[in-house]
Amino acid sequence: MPGPTDDYVRVMPAADVAEEEIYAFEVDGELRVLTRVGDEIFACDGICTHEYAELSEGEIEDHVIYCPLHGSGFDLRTGAVTSLPAVTPLPIYDVKIVDGEVYVSRTPRDEGEA
């Protein structure tokens, strides 16, 4: 019987995720980022879809992560582009809190799934 964290990877204690701070981590060699906005923790790809730039060096404002290179914005809830020059949505990953630990799905959420 599958457990509650199958297909998820442990990232860090939920209590250590500070508001609008960006934490880089890797899953199977791919860069991802984790952040908190209000009471919610979000995870997304760590590389901008416009041009190679690490989003861990970017900024968070409300529910949008901004790329440090050209300022492309992505909604952390859906991955939707909120500001150009990016036109491709950012892959978003499901987050679970289990026993106070943050777990992030290995595979991205389907586009349009909120």
Tell me what the structure shows.
There is one protein chain. The protein has 114 residues and is mainly β. It has one domain (8-105): 3-layer Sandwich (Rieske Iron-sulfur Protein), CATH 2.102.10. The protein has no helices and 11 strands. A 4-stranded antiparallel beta sheet has the order 2-3-4-9, with no helix packed on it. It is globular and about 40 Å long.
Features:
114 residues, mainly beta, Rieske Iron-sulfur Protein, 4-stranded antiparallel β-sheet, globular
Could you estimate the helical fraction of the residues in percent? under 10%
- What is the CATH H-level superfamily? Rieske [2Fe-2S] iron-sulphur domain
At the first level of CATH, the class is Mainly Beta
Query: What is the structural class?
Result: mainly beta
Q: How many structural domains are formed by the residues?
A: 1
Main beta sheet strand tally, sense and closure: 4 strands, antiparallel
Task: Provide the β-strand percentage band.
Answer: 35-45%
- Low-pLDDT runs: none
Please give the structural blueprint.
Elements (H helix, E strand, L loop, with lengths): L7 E6 L9 E5 L2 E8 L2 E6 L13 E3 L2 E3 L6 E3 L5 E3 L8 E2 L1 E4 L2 E5 L9
Antiparallel strand pairs: 1-11, 2-3, 3-4, 4-9, 5-6, 6-7, 7-8, 10-11
Quick structural overview:
With 114 residues, this protein is an all-beta fold.
